[in-house]
Design goal:
Largest sheet: 7 strands, mixed
Helix content: 40-55%
Structural class: alpha+beta
CATH architecture of the largest domain: 2-Layer Sandwich
Strand order of the largest sheet: 3-4-5-2-1-8-9
Low-confidence stretches: 130-140
CATH superfamily of the largest domain: Beta Polymerase, domain 2
Radius of gyration: 32 Å
Number of strands: 11
Mean pLDDT: 88
Number of helices: 25
CATH class of the largest domain: Alpha Beta
Strand content: 5-15%
Length: 495
């Protein structure tokens, strides 16, 4: 269904005798029965004419695009971009047209677009889609000079016109072809794929920020691993992440049934399948990036000592090159650096787990375990989360909990000495133990006024009485600690 805001914009342009069509990716998604993320319109009106029709607008670019404010409450429809029919001159830098010119007709505008499935225009007549759409005669309302509908049906990514011309105009289109094939689950048409392989070197001219944005879309798709492999097959990977391609064909040892590159893809595939976040997916892909450089020997007994340290450094270089935000890069690097943590239930102590938590950060521990799960599945083992990983989760939870101690109280030993006017000694500790026992039984008592009243009462008791009450309070505290530990174990199904 076409939103009323889009219909309104087109109607206002047509009322002023201008041509206006819905174009681009939104038409592609609309024809596939998917709700578009945004809506774009092309028109015969010049930018200054568009601005007269829509006083509330932004126009701060060289590409004849006016952004119109609709006043919609829907964020996707609040701003709608309207672009004048245009055609473009040479792309000397393989990124931007040397000159943007007005086109006279819609066909010229569609001819300069990247792929046939994005070069379809949808016309609304009389502010409504005509009945012919319902009667399966879309050609009467859809302008499709490059047979994009046919490619939609056949699930093909095909360049408009001569593929090499399109890629030499803007080399990023090669990466976009892979991204669209990945996210839409399409194939790249043979001649288009051949042109990508031939012109892959043009990726050197593209800004790293633009490459990063397309890569993230691939990584965050359900078919992320297939997308990375398609980058390799088309020859683009060696110009984007050559470090990853260096693992292609590099065998491992008796602990792995897959070579390095394939292991990385399978790890990423699992991370995508489980819906893990972006940082985990990047770490799953890059966690063994250092293995080819760390490898010593061949066959079943090959070693990869310190590959996690080497890999963390390489990951940092890759993410820095791609201009990743510092905060995201730091987390991914940390996940790669510590993905090889050692843990056996009967061997690793609470203190070593505390050290791991300090190194990685408690807020990153869940993601680190997710990377380990992806690593395991990528290694060919059947279970992502064996008992020992569940046990590690239990220990992490246990060592991260605030310990039950007198430090939980709203008063201190100094407060007790000051209120009772007594020197340091066993009485202070006994009183604090008793107060803690009372607070554990009834947390509402952990208030200064309430505790001060109890201190006054306890201060009147003998040392023997305080010692006996303190021992009893410690016994009760042990019961609470045991119960808390049992509940934590049950949470992770460990014994």
């Amino acid at each position: 269904m076409i939103p009323k805001e889009v219909k309104s914009v087109i109607k206002k342009l047509k009322d002023k005798k201008f041509e206006a069509y819905i174009v681009g990716g939104c038409v592609r998604d609309f024809l596939r029965g998917i709700e578009p993320k945004d809506w774009d319109i092309t028109t015969s009106a010049k930018p200054e004419e568009i601005r007269k029709v829509f006083p509330k607008n932004f126009y701060e670019n060289k590409f004849l695009t006016v952004t119109v404010q609709t006043g919609s409450k829907d964020p996707k429809l609040k701003d709608i971009e309207i672009t004048t029919y245009r055609k473009e001159a040479r792309y000397t830098d393989k990124r931007h047209p040397d000159e943007v010119k007005y086109a006279q007709i819609l066909g010229e505008d569609l001819a300069r677009r990247d792929f046939t499935i994005n070069a379809i225009a949808l016309e609304i007549q009389n502010n409504h889609l005509p009945r012919v759409i319902k009667s399966n005669h879309p050609r009467e309302v859809i302008r499709d000079p490059f047979e994009g509908q046919k490619d939609l049906k056949n699930k093909l990514i095909r360049a408009v016109g001569r593929p090499e011309d399109r890629f030499q105009e803007d080399a990023l289109r090669m990466l976009r072809a892979v991204r669209l094939a990945t996210t839409l689950d399409f194939k790249i048409e043979p001649k288009t794929a051949e042109a990508i392989q031939k012109n892959a070197g043009l990726m050197r001219a593209i800004s790293q920020e633009r490459i990063r944005d397309e890569l993230i879309k691939i990584i965050m798709s359900n078919r992320a691993a297939q997308g990375i492999e398609l980058l390799r097959v088309t020859g683009l990977l060696k110009y984007i992440m050559p470090e990853l391609e260096q693992g292609y064909g590099v065998g491992q040892n008796k602990h792995h049934i897959y070579e390095c590159y394939q292991h990385a893809l399978l790890s990423l595939e699992y991370a995508a399948k489980k819906g893990f976040n972006e940082q985990v997916r990047w770490a799953a892909l890059l966690h063994d990036i250092g293995k080819p450089r760390a490898k010593r020997g061949e066959g079943q007994d090959a070693t990869f000592y310190n590959h996690e340290v080497i890999g963390a450094k390489m990951t940092g270089q890759i993410l820095d090159r791609l201009r990743f935000p510092k905060k995201d890069a730091e987390k991914i690097i940390k996940l790669v650096r510590y993905h090889l943590f050692y843990y056996n239930v009967d061997e690793v102590t609470d203190s070593s787990v505390r050290r791991l938590v300090r190194q990685v950060g408690l807020e990153n521990m869940e993601e680190l375990l997710q990377v380990r799960m992806a690593d395991r599945i990528g290694s060919g083992v059947p279970k992502a989360e064996p008992y020992k990983l569940r046990h590690l989760k239990y220990v992490i939870d246990k060592v991260s909990q605030d310990p039950i101690s007198v430090k939980m109280l709203k008063v201190t030993g100094n407060d007790v000495m000051r209120q009772l006017d007594i020197p340091p000694g066993p009485r202070i500790g006994h009183i604090l133990d008793i107060l803690l026992g009372n607070v554990l039984f009834d947390p509402k008592k952990n208030k200064n006024a309430t505790l001060e009243q109890e201190i006054a009462t306890l201060g009147k008791l003998s040392g023997q009485e305080l010692m006996e009450m303190s021992q009893k309070a410690k016994q009760e505290r042990e019961k609470v600690e045991i119960k808390q530990d049992q509940m934590t174990k049950q949470k992770y199904w460990v014994t």
